[in-house]
Amino acid sequence: MRRAIRFPEVVEAHRMRIYETFTVHFERAAREVAQLDGNASLASVYVSRSAWDRWMAGDIKGLPRQATCRVLEHLFGEPAEQLFGPLEPEAVHQVGAGPATVVDSVGSPHLAAMESFRLADRQLGGGHVYRSVVHYLNTAVAPTLFGSAGSSEDGEVAFGAAVVLTEMAAWMAHDAGRDDLASGHFDRALRLSQSLTDGTAGANVLAGMSHLALQTGRVDVAADLARSGLARLASGPRVPTLEARLHAMEARAFAQFHAEREAQRALDAARESLVLARTAPASRWVAPFDEAALASEGASVLLDLGALKAAAREAERALALRDASRVRSRAFGQVTLARVLLAQGQLDAACSVGMELLNACQSVTSLRLSSQLALLQNDFDRHHQVSEVRELLSRMTTTAQHRRLLLGSLALPEGPQ
Prior knowledge:
CATH topology of the domain at 290-410: Serine Threonine Protein Phosphatase 5, Tetratricopeptide repeat
Number of strands: 0
CATH architecture of the domain at 290-410: Alpha Horseshoe
CATH class of the domain at 290-410: Mainly Alpha
Helix content: 55-70%
CATH superfamily of the domain at 290-410: Tetratricopeptide repeat domain
Largest sheet: none
Shape: globular
Radius of gyration: 23 Å
Strand content: under 5%
Number of helices: 19
Mean pLDDT: 85
């Protein structure tokens, strides 16, 4: 017999309304509890899809088993008795008696999944989330697009969500060090975008491909992809946020070519576009790109150009604008700021930023971040004669060992996904 319990409400409040996203957070909590309690068996506690569906529907008589309750209590910070207890009378109307699928305000579970996966990726890193996104694409999105029975889902929305989620998978694969998988996902996302009447999704994919090309040292390709994205946008309504991102990618490429005038021009164009974005309607197919993101890209541009004072200002601004929940973004910003401070010879300040970085990035599963930390450690090693730097280097070595173990346990599968 179904009853109105608090669990669905708590899940919604924590933005874990998609099973795959909940699983990512639950598995992480299980590992943390195993370490806290000194009980290795807790790390393998798992919530099946059928149990999740029952909980979300209120189809539960008692409490889950003790180990599961322990992990849930750690994850949500509430006793299991409250999580599975009755809703207050005035809140009962908020929980439906239908299926457990949660649908967002425009009626698409896929759009809800996009936001849920995006949030989990920001907080935890691609290594944690990649498998869940691929599983969702294969089991939930693909049947919507290609199922023989058809679907009530609007075709444009379904294909758009498929494009965005496939592009997310690309970035998560790159974050986990699998650029071969990332490239395949980007190519599929671009092909899927051709099914849309709105060219924005395809331009967004091109921005991601440009960013990946920059990360892998293909600067010519990065510049061409950014220009292709801008050309695609030019044929439709303006999307200032995406324009800003594409101009920023172009600026990054010019800076690596040491083309100062062109890089500054592209950076100024990105800033102008982002000003327009404040009053323009947001596109559901465009990855978030805000003032903090532009400040971070600007810091990298200015650092490559050797404009250290301006680079430091932009790096500090990026961190000031980015809230604490964006752990990975802040970590990359701290790496950039530390590099700038080292280039300025401000060793004390650089070490301070480095210590903050190490404390914050413990649980972020990003091989890309690990690579950046290794490069930063090499930069600090040039000043190893300074005692404060030696202390930081020791911490960096310990952190690198910890991160190798963490990332090793989350290695992505071989072969295409």
